[in-house]
Design goal:
mainly beta; four-stranded antiparallel sheet; two-stranded antiparallel ribbon; globular
Length: 128
């Protein structure tokens, strides 16, 4: 069974010093229904003498219905390590202008010379 998907691919410029090559895929519709994503960013709690920053784009979700988005990001490299944040946002929070955002929160993965986690929370940006 074929599912019609529309979108576009952005080619990342090649760096001759780097042997990897990547593309970003942006899906704009799935099976004839519009989808959208949200940017998110923030700073973790301050623990064990440091904190981390993170930023990313949520997974796509269907427009026009109640929904949540999956998210995943690797934190900045601080105090010799990184952490992963991932999970599902809360439901859409309507804005006065007709758009919406989502709340997200959780704990990072455990890592570090002294194993530890950080707490994070925030709101996504407006849908793209």
């Amino acid at each position: 069974m074929a599912i019609p998907v529309t979108g576009f691919i952005v080619d990342e410029p090649d760096d001759e010093a780097d042997s990897s090559h990547s593309h970003k895929l942006y899906i704009t519709s799935w099976d004839g229904r519009a989808v959208h994503v949200h940017p998110f960013e923030g700073t973790t709690s301050f623990d064990i003498g440091h904190q981390h920053e993170y930023a990313g784009i949520t997974e796509p979700a269907q427009s026009g219905v109640q929904h949540a988005h999956g998210y995943y990001a690797v934190t900045s490299f601080d105090d010799g390590h990184t952490h992963i944040i991932s999970g599902m946002t809360g439901p859409a929070i309507p804005l006065a202008d007709g758009g919406h955002i989502h709340y997200f929160a959780g704990h990072t993965t455990e890592n570090g010379r002294i194993p530890h986690t950080h707490v994070y929370q925030g709101n996504t940006g407006i849908e793209e």
